[in-house]
Hints:
With 139 residues, the protein is an all-alpha fold. It has two domains: 3-43, no CATH class; 62-138, lambda repressor-like DNA-binding domains (434 Repressor (Amino-terminal Domain), Orthogonal Bundle), CATH 1.10.260.40. The protein is 61% helix and 0% strand. The chain has nine helices and no strands. It has helices spanning 3-9, 12-22, 32-43, 62-73, 78-85, 89-97, 107-117, 121-124, 128-138. The model has no long low-confidence stretch (mean pLDDT 81).
Amino acid sequence: MDRRKQLEQMTVLGGLEPLARQYNLDIAHMKKSEIVNAILAYENPKPELETKEIKRRPPRNAAQTKLKALRVSSGLKQKDVAEKAGVKLPVYSQYEQGIRSIDGIKFISLIKICNALNCKLEDILEDQETLAALKEYNS
Length: 139
């Protein structure tokens, strides 16, 4: 017989109260089902929940430093570049901070960011394979 059914068949005073005392449960204002659930929780504790690793901001890389430098030298705010490029401000901010990779965005968004910053693709890309292919394309 499963443990829940065993506990549910016990009376509060006859069997559940001594178990509740063993686990220091205050059962004065608890329903029988709550007492059963509490006892089961003590008898079968759930395994520790896996903790998610906190996503830390990566160290500054060349692309994000270039992106911010280009924006600052253009006298623009993040909001200005985001509006001109047609991307949301938090997204553009994440590109500058290196949380999102500039190399992973749509080509049209890259072009719009370059137009907003008045720069070339080579100025903001960091992926060497992409840069090499772009150089070959332009020659």
